[in-house]
Design goal:
- The chain is α+β, with helices and mostly antiparallel strands.
- The chain has helices at about 5-20, 75-85, 175-180, 190-195, 200-215, 220-225, 260-305, 310-325, 355-400, 405-415, 450-460, 490-500, 545-550; strands spanning about 25-30, 35-40, 45-50, 60, 85-95, 100-105, 115-120, 130-135, 140, 230-235, 240, 250-255, 335-340, 345-350, 435-440, 445, 465-470, 480-485, 510-515, 520-525, 530-535, 540, 555.
- The strands form six sheets. It has a seven-stranded antiparallel sheet, sandwiched between helices. The protein has a five-stranded antiparallel sheet with strand order 5-6-7-8-9.
- The chain starts with a helix and ends with a strand.
Length: about 550
């Protein structure tokens, strides 16, 4: 992983510059493993995110907007009791390992000053957040490890916290490091990983690359790299990040002013998507099943429609039986006669239990049934197509949804009787959780991210002379600029960016976005929720810019 001990060292240094002596005002638990600390330091409000997620464990300051749950879990309540109102006295890293410790001073229930230690181990799926007293006696942990779990350490209230043992060298201990590097056989990637604390394969490859590409001694390369500070994300075959330049990777790089800013940008969307995937996997499965059912139904109905094309042969058989009644006796199983439509001899199967007239009526009934079924089948195909498009739209909306958006999508499915209503006390109806952005001019822009939100901001909230944006010919968000014409170029481009980014065409270039005054928008009769038609629109072509969206001010 890129988040190694060297990255944590840079984060620790930046935290000491930013939040040391700061006061912890509030703690939120955003999800099972993610905690957000609101810290006031040097007259600045800071957000410190600590995530022990198995996929995206990390710690960094954040400027992103997060959804804060109304009800805090038990661990969050415990942290609030012991840490809220506390002053951060010290932020330190254990050697160069992926362990950071916060010393927090706060008065206890008796009014005596006490020190609590908040220990975060950034170790992938083994990451943990632990709170202890000043003597390292564990008070609680987000992930508990019992003595009988077969692990080296016990992480449980009452146990004493033990720092993970290691025989590796701190790479910032220059004498020991240089002694190791003076042995030629130790100059390789594997040896670096085996010898030095907090080294990732990414850094080991970079050191070997620079060593092979220059005549610089390996010790000088270590000194240079470990002291460098050039935080960047490199888009190669996939995205990589590090606190220094990665010359061994080819790709487009984006540089940042600090490691905290880099981590905030790199992880924000990835972690949000991961959390939402976990929370929405049941609803995604439900939607995909309905899409599959609709496709199967359409295929079956199309086959039925093709079968109706054979209806005329039943009518002809009925007519031929009637024309040859004198040649048929009850009990005959077949009728051989001349087809006067094409002058060919045909053989018609007869029901031996029916009279000639009844056999004729049987074929006429089949003909009539197939003929009358055509409008019905066509109507069923249209409805199945409409339902399939509806669920495809929902699938797109879930992929771009927040946790609150997903709850609204579930409510919509309950309202349409696709899902059963849970037997719980109904809550007071709240207004939809649409998002509000502000462009550089301070103009308010509304963004709906599901059908309920789209319908609300377009048909209830927006005024008739405000301007509506939507990506052309693809599922996407309704975007409303709370301003009347004429719009400035900044208004138009920002709203178009939002409409293109929150659409199915997010990954495309030159995305067409239509915009029009709300007065020219009409609901489509019989369509589900937010389907609309419009006229007198203009079109702008835009390249979605993720950085611009993330940097927009949000309410």
């Amino acid at each position: 992983m890129s988040f190694d001990g060297n990255i944590l060292r840079k984060v620790t240094s930046e935290l000491n510059e930013t939040i040391l002596t700061g006061r912890i005002n509030k703690i939120y638990q955003l999800s099972k493993y993610d905690l957000l600390f609101i810290i006031n330091a040097k007259s600045v409000k800071n957000q410190l995110l600590i995530s022990s997620s198995p996929s995206y464990s990390r710690i960094h300051l954040s400027k992103m907007v997060y959804e804060k749950p109304s009800t805090p879990p038990a661990f969050c309540m415990f942290l609030r009791k012991h840490l809220e109102g506390g002053i951060i006295e010290k932020v330190s890293q254990i050697s160069n390992d992926r362990i950071i410790i916060f010393d927090i001073r706060k008065r206890n229930e008796l009014g005596d000053m006490s020190i609590k230690k908040l220990i975060f181990e950034v170790m992938g799926r083994h990451s943990n957040l632990i709170i202890t007293d000043e003597n390292f006696k564990i008070l609680d942990a987000i992930k508990k490890v019992m003595p009988f779990d077969g692990k080296d350490r016990t992480i449980f209230p009452g146990a004493v916290y033990e720092i993970p043992s290691t025989n590796k060298i701190d790479p910032y201990n220059k004498p020991l490091r240089d002694k190791n590097l003076s042995i030629p056989k130790n100059i390789n990637e594997k040896s670096f990983l085996d010898s030095f604390i907090g080294f990732s394969p990414l850094l080991a490859r970079e050191i070997i690359y620079r060593f092979n590409k220059s005549e610089t001694p390996i010790k000088e390369i270590f000194d240079t790299i470990l002291e460098e500070s050039n935080p960047q994300i490199i888009n190669s075959r996939k995205d990589y990040f590090y606190f220094t330049s990665l010359n061994h990777l080819e790709g487009v790089s984006k540089e940042f002013d600090s490691v905290n800013e880099l981590l905030d940008r790199y992880y924000y969307e990835r972690d949000s998507i991961d959390i939402i995937k976990q929370k929405s996997k049941d609803i995604v499965k439900f939607i995909k099943n309905h899409i599959s059912k609709a496709k199967t139904k359409i295929e079956k109905l199309n086959k039925d429609l093709i079968n109706t094309s054979t209806r005329d042969k039943y009518k002809i058989k009925g007519e031929l039986i009637q024309a040859n009644l004198y040649n048929i006796t009850k009990g005959d199983s077949v009728l051989k006669c001349l087809n006067y439509y094409d002058n060919t001899e045909v053989t018609i199967d007869l029901d031996i239990k029916k009279s000639p007239v009844q056999n004729s009526e049987k074929y006429f009934k089949k003909y009539k049934k197939l003929k009358t079924s055509i409008p019905y089948i066509n109507r069923q195909i249209r409805e199945a197509n409409k339902e399939m498009k509806y669920f495809e739209l929902l699938l797109h909306q879930v992929q771009n949804a927040s946790l609150k958006d997903i709850e609204e999508i579930k409510d919509e499915l309950i309202e349409k009787r696709y899902l059963k209503q849970k037997l719980v006390k109904p809550k007071r109806k709240k207004k939809p959780n649409f998002e509000t952005y502000y462009d550089e001019e301070g103009t308010e822009i509304l963004v709906g991210k599901n059908n309920i939100q789209n319908e609300y901001i377009t048909h209830k909230l927006a005024k008739h002379n405000e301007v509506w944006f939507h990506v052309k010919g693809a599922p996407g968000s309704h975007v409303v600029v709370r301003k009347i014409q004429p719009l400035s170029e900044t208004n138009i481009r920002t709203a178009s960016q939002l409409a293109s980014y929150f659409s199915k065409l997010r990954g495309s270039s030159s995305v067409p976005v239509d915009y029009v005054e709300v007065r020219y928008i009409k609901k489509v009769p019989g369509k589900i929720n937010s389907f609309v038609t419009y006229k007198n629109n203009k079109t702008i072509y835009i390249d979605p810019d993720e950085d611009l969206i993330l940097n927009l001010k949000r309410k």
